[in-house]
């Protein structure tokens, strides 16, 4: 794979009003016109380069969108106020009453709840399938199916979707393949592999500083323009607009994403190997034992690694909670949801980010009580981190002293 997403971002140049090295921030909600005719044309979508109102678009949001489109190799992108705003706008744009969606069953809890509890109000139904089972995906297709939805690397079980094969299936049945790539920015480029629309929660790795929520929709000019249509566009009419000041701050953080992803991945692979060697049940796509290790390798862009997310199973929720509290006490990370921060974050998904999923369904998808999800941080000294985590596990009898 020769796609180089970080180069694409780096090659874009934006200057500020006075030759600043960063683009000026457009701190305005509305824009003046020299002539009434231009205002009318802008409403009609015929005045390129003119701004009307910031819910439609704004210069700062367009800079960030352009950089993210370059990263995902799509024609265009639209930034939104959150990842959920991106997901819900896309699905409401693509589907209408009586339509049907096929979704991976291991997805972000909020997305699951939206598909399962909210969309049925509009008579849009969803089948949840094991996305790694292509025969099951194809068998679920009906005459009303419009969308296949999945995460490249799923939350929290870290299952890997075969984007190429899913896209062949989608094309064969004239469906839109929508991929949430939040867990694997730079590492995997779903559009290059055949996805139609790529979504990110910018809240996570891309912004990387846990100071805001944000989202992006990457797709064709046609689709992005449809979202912004003043009469029928989901982002225009639902209004999940990112603020210009925030767009400018996320763009600056995007500049270091490639370095951060390399460090997240390096640290996560190091810890995953050591945890597995200790006999802990460890899931990380970079481990040979991961069922989709070869698939991930075949899809990945060189040099960004297998990402910063890993899970271990310590047997019970009780043990998981004790371990997380002790690790936080020793300043090894924070007991917090979310991901992509400089500090390691850990949570028990069954009782937090996936708690929207009923217990019996959690069991069916292999989401067990003792699971801890780690977003591995940018630690400068991962050997020290490992030693300290190891000591915590000994203290709580998660590991037996005999293996020392
Ligand atoms: C966090 C997350 C979302 C939701 O994004 P928000 O920015 O919190 O709205 C969607 N998908 C995945 C995979 C996530 O991790």
TrEMBL record:
Any one GO molecular-function label of the UniProt entry: carbon-sulfur lyase activity
Keyword Transferase annotated: yes
GO-annotated biological processes: transsulfuration
Keywords: Aminotransferase, Pyridoxal phosphate, Transferase
Keyword Ribonucleoprotein: no
Classification via InterPro entries: Cys/Met-Metab_PyrdxlP-dep_enz (IPR000277), PyrdxlP-dep_Trfase (IPR015424), PyrdxlP-dep_Trfase_major (IPR015421), PyrdxlP-dep_Trfase_small (IPR015422)
GO cellular component: cytoplasm
Family, similarity comment: Belongs to the trans-sulfuration enzymes family.
Protein name: Aminotransferase class I/II-fold pyridoxal phosphate-dependent enzyme
Species this chain originates from: Aestuariibaculum sediminum
